[in-house]
Amino acid sequence: MNIDVERLKEEGELDLAEIVSLPRIAREVVDIESLDDVNVRLHATYHHPYVVVRGELDTVVHYVCARCLAEFARPLSAPFHERYTTDEHKAEDEVRFVGDEMVDVTPELEQAIFLAIDNRPLCKETCQGLCPVCGRDRNVEACGCDVRPIDPRLEALKGLLSDHGSE
Ligand SMILES: [Zn+2]
Ligand SMILES: [Zn+2]
């Protein structure tokens, strides 16, 4: 998605609306299966020598549940707020130098999505996950496996007892 800086300088402000595809998100985040096309609405203003862009991103994220691996979809809205500069001496870490050409804001759109996604997505808060013993989805049926964590002191004792038994 591009912003025409020359036109922005002439008009002072621009409203932009576009549907963009951001495939890098799903490629880089293991918990995301895919991302619907993103509805981007931006308002850009020029205050010499800065291009200020504010807006909102909306999409639907298809996550993979971190506990049970089921796929589920959840809407996502992310705010967008970036500054660019047309003066290379004013460039900083957070303020990219863009000159007078077309600015591709895709890297910052991706960044806004990265900041808004769930880091540990769960299909539901109460998701029971997969059984670590038999692998069955415990949301679907209880399997009855013994998955209680073993007390490390008991574990040591068990070891001693079996050593004794093998003598
Ligand atoms: Zn789940
Ligand atoms: Zn089980």
From TrEMBL:
Highest taxon of source: Bacteria
Record-linked Pfam families: YceD
Entry-linked PANTHER family: LARGE RIBOSOMAL RNA SUBUNIT ACCUMULATION PROTEIN YCED HOMOLOG 1, CHLOROPLASTIC (PTHR34374)
Protein name as annotated: DUF177 domain-containing protein
